[in-house]
Amino acid sequence: MWKNFSPRQISEATYCIATLNVVPSVLDRMENFLPGRKYENKKAKLGSKLMKKLTTLFAATALATLMAGSAWSKTFVYCSEGSPEGFDPGLYTAGTTFDASAHTVYNRLLEFKKGTTETEAGLAESWTISDDGLEYTFKLRPGVKFQTTEFFTPTRDLNADDVIFSLERQWKSDHPWHGYVSGASWEYFSGMGMPDLIESLEKVDDMTVKIKLKRREAPFLANLAMPFASIMSKEYADKLEADGKMNQLNQMPLGTGPFAFVGYQQDAVIRYKAHPDYWAGKQKIDDLVFSITTDAAVRYQKLKAGECHLMPYPNAADVESMKADPELKVMEQAGLNVAYLAYNTTQAPFDKVEVRKALNKAINKQAIVDAVFQGQATPATNPIPPTMWSYNDNIEDDTYEPEVAKKMLEDAGVTDLSMKVWAMPVARPYMLNARRAAELIQADFAKIGVDVEIVSYEWAEYLERSKAKDRDGAVILGWTGDNGDPDNFLDTLLGCDAVGGNNRAQWCNQEFDDLVTKAKEASSVEERTKLYEEAQVVFKREAPWATLDHSLSIVPMRKNVEGFVQSPLGDFAFDGVDIVE
Fold first, then answer.
1. Which residues form the Solute-binding protein family domain (predicted)?
2. Contacts of 530 (CB under 8 A, 6+ apart)
3. CB of 267 closer than 8 Å to CB of 202
4. Which among 124, 242, 325, 533 would be 20 to 30 A from 352, CA to CA?
5. Which pTM was predicted?
6. 359 with 224, same domain?
7. Residue of 168, 167, 147 whose CA lies nearest to 157
8. Is position 66 within any domain?
9. Tell me, what CATH number does 91's domain have?
């Protein structure tokens, strides 16, 4: 493999491997590829000063290329689109964060079957539900090992204490871990109404947990397969608390999942290693690297160069060339997603439904789809995707009529309106280029006399700021379903419990909220479907969002990648993945 490398690249790879304390014998083998160079002198000068100067190139490209071709170790490099907000999945809602934590380091009581929205046994090997639907009893899988890392060595297997700790810390406001991170809101847990749903968490014995609910909750099992319900090690948490290092739980994660956390270089590289005692079997790849690459064009260049094996969210303009490249293969499927522009319905003039509906009629959604997705998306009518059960086909979308929209604003008494449109700084499956979409909306609104300022922030800050109840203007965001249930869109994004969190419109409509609450408690899919269809009618009438698009999910990768299964939930998980040379 070294014939394709320049002496400089070989030298850089040598430096990288040495600095990262990789097996010395591999270093010795490198001498054969440095003819005429004073290899021993180079080796002797490696030290702490050089370690501090290592670049992302060394960690994510030269290292990966070397290790992928080595007989003793196999490294998979994923060109991630952004940085995680942290590594405790209970604290966040972004897919980027879940990929770096929930889908690598952790497991849950139930898991989603690969490539589906069906649940299957995870850390719970079996469960029973009482006749009244209020008690769930879980039998834990015996012999599940937590990861051993440089920062913690567990002394016991998974037990009921870990499950109780993982859920109780999010549920009880007086729990010592409830506010361990400044500003922690347990956004997903709270936004789904879990604090008011759970009656009790009970440890029946070391391997049995009982959860009692106050009311029936049809999607409850699917909810427990979601990232926020990841199971942590209470033993690790107790040690951190005793040492006064509680924040480390969000910085140095430890779980039962397929990969153990090794280290994170801020905004550059995350490194993992295969969990050798993983209950579902050790992975075929030994090392996993997230090479954080925010620019889609750069991700593509790295993929073509073999510097990463798989990338998310390609530019629409690049997809055809990716499909034509014999060294690549491309997976695609309809995404379980929606992109939207959420008005802050508590702030004038967006508190008036007439104003929101006027603005919606001014947006040329087809132009956004054409410019941003080049045909790989469709304009959105409803807040749930058309591939999801209970989608209401009878609802008519807003027509693009700028002159009508202008008159509607005038009739509402709104003139000379200035507003902000927030544009995401990262690509997501539902919105590949929010800046471009915002520019098109800006031009559309200018036609009806509305002046738009486009604003953005770093991704974690964007997510945090956009939750504020007094946020100004309208924010571009979106959602990929986390459990395949309509509740995960309608209640999670638009319910009253989610105001100040996932509900970026800050919209609490009692009629809508009552419908989705009843749907959660209903016993049949038919009854739930009817209620969700009615809720979509209310949503369209009140227009807290401009629904923008539903996109295809496209995943390009090197042709030698095997075992990757595209998820309808939009996550990137690498258990079961292999590199075949």
1. 120-498
2. none
3. no
4. 533
5. 0.79
6. no
7. 147
8. no
9. 3.90.76.10
